[in-house]
Amino acid sequence: MAKLTKKQKAVTIDREKLHGVDEAIALAKSGATSKFDETIEVALNLGVDPRHADQMVRGVVTLPAGTGKTVRVGVFARGPKADEARAAGADVVGAEDLMETIQGGTIDFDRCIATPDMMGVVGRLGKVLGPKGLMPNPKLGTVTMNVAEAVKAAKGGQVEYRVEKAGIIHSGIGKASFSQEDLRRNFDALVDAVVKAKPSGAKGKYVRKVAVSSTMGAGIKVDTAEVAGA
């Protein structure tokens, strides 16, 4: 195990204690002592088995205070729609040429958007984009004719969340440099979205465990009694 720094030793965290949301965020912020601006992350342990289609939890949420990250957006579009995407700030725009670039091993974007007519081309990239969570999806608003709005949303603090095999959702809610208030606003927005996305097949307690951490920090358990909808 790596030795703790003096700053990390100063922030002692009881790994078993349940904390209030604000206290957990404050502890995560104070424990973020790296030289870079760490991300504050939330882990939501849900009472679902995502192997069953009626228990999958997936969606998008706009974090009101933004993510603190620069998001690169790739768009599959032609003609006027390609021009719209570029004007809205898309970083990479193309059609078959973009497909060939990706097949060649270069993926220079964090989010992928496509117009519906381009899905025949994008579909050939399923084995490449799918495992990376980059496949455009109509339910997530990333297959759309309104590419300008989709690009602006992706750049403006919209994040995707998806439950993993173990029934856990991991998502960043901002940077350690964010104010306590902004991190709390983002936390509430994420939890609210996940609670609203509760699938029909979920049985029993839905939000079972919640933890907050910084990129390099320990997980801080949150009292689910304080979490709306838990």
Order of strands, main sheet, comes to: 7-1-8-9
Distance between the termini: 34 Å
Which structural category do the helix and sheet elements fall into?
Answer: alpha/beta
Low-confidence stretches: 1-10
Largest sheet: 4 strands, antiparallel
List the secondary-structure elements in sequence, H or E.
HHEEEHEHEHHHEEHEE
Proportion of beta-strand residues: 15-25%
Q: Helicity level, as a percent range?
A: 25-40%
Shape: globular
Give the strand tally: 9
**Average pLDDT taken over every residue:** 91
Number of helices: 8
What is the radius of gyration? 19 Å
What are the main properties of this structure?
four-stranded antiparallel β-sheet; alpha/beta; globular; three-stranded parallel β-sheet; 230 residues; 21% strand
How would you characterize the overall build of this protein?
The protein has a four-stranded antiparallel β-sheet with strand order 7-1-8-9. Helix content is 29%, strand content 21%. The chain is globular and about 55 Å long. Strand 8 and strand 9 form a beta hairpin. The protein has 230 residues and is α/β, with parallel strands linked by helices. The two termini are 34 Å apart. It has eight helices and nine strands. The protein has helices spanning 6-10, 21-31, 79-87, 96-103, 119-122, 126-129, 147-155, 180-196; strands at residues 39-46, 58-62, 73-76, 92-94, 111-114, 158-162, 168-175, 207-214, 220-222.
